[in-house]
Amino acid sequence: MSKHSNISIFVPHVGCPNMCSFCNQRTISGHQSVPTALDVINTCTQALGEVKSVQNTEIAFFGGSFTAIDKDYMTELLSAAKQFVGKDKFCGIRISTRPDCINEQILESLKSYGVRAIELGAQSLDDEVLKANDRGHTEKDVLKASELIKKHGFELGLQIMTGLYKSNNEKDMQTLKKVISINPDTLRIYPTVILEGTKLGELYKSGEYKPVSFESMVELCADMLIELSQTDISVIRCGLHASDNVSTEQVGGFYHPAFKELCESVVYRKLIEKALPENITGRCEVSVDELCISKAVGHGKSNTEYFKNKGIELAVKGEKNLGRYQCRFRG
Ligand code: SF4
User: Residue 49: inside a domain, yes or no?
Assistant: First the structure.
């Protein structure tokens, strides 16, 4: 089966009533200008000619608070995109927005334009953390919007941020537990990246905001991936996907181009550790799904090295259809 993909169209910051502590939309989207309906048409026309599996591809309006932008402008963009949805065209439209910018009327309107998935930037489900980061909405708003989105038959996506100001690993794990009880279809986990020109940047430079170490964040996200593997929630992102200028505007936080790979190495390290008999040393053979061998060996062979330091010579074998995040000790 072909993998799902998106034709991403960035709608930076326009209309957003907030200035969240971490936000520097233009930096993240890498775009200075807002797209016009014609830009949408051009992007979709070009993509229709290039994308192999259009029926697994959605037109995605990302980067801002889509339902908070000027209504006429929003419908212009949606009308332009709608022409490219249907038979032999793309399978639908997805948008991302804020939890407090969703209501019955907006949802009806989105549905009429062929939107089928809505991602909410929840960021945290801890009111103290939301307040400290100037999100301008509460946990209750996330719960309410999620319920409405599901009730109207949309695919629900949630986005959370880990390591925000005034948060810690326990609070982030609590947020994840609440996310699991909301049971969205998809989840994006974004470890906080601190950018120049943001409130977080200032708090970080003054020493008021002290994020946990990079290793601790990778461990946390690995634990989250393990928890999520027990659910039907599909993790469609772990780590910020950003244009090149993030690397020039980043002043701290947790950006790594292969963040998810780092986390999955830790996931497998934990699984292997659990599968091995206690106090074992010498050569140990474990099997994992044949598609996950490199994850089990670890990013830069980190797991092989880790076990070597414990006197274990790790041999990873691939097994057909064993499944993701499974590990068996073979002796
Ligand atoms: S709601 Fe989104 S676009 Fe608006 S300031 Fe916050 S992160 Fe930026």
Answer: yes
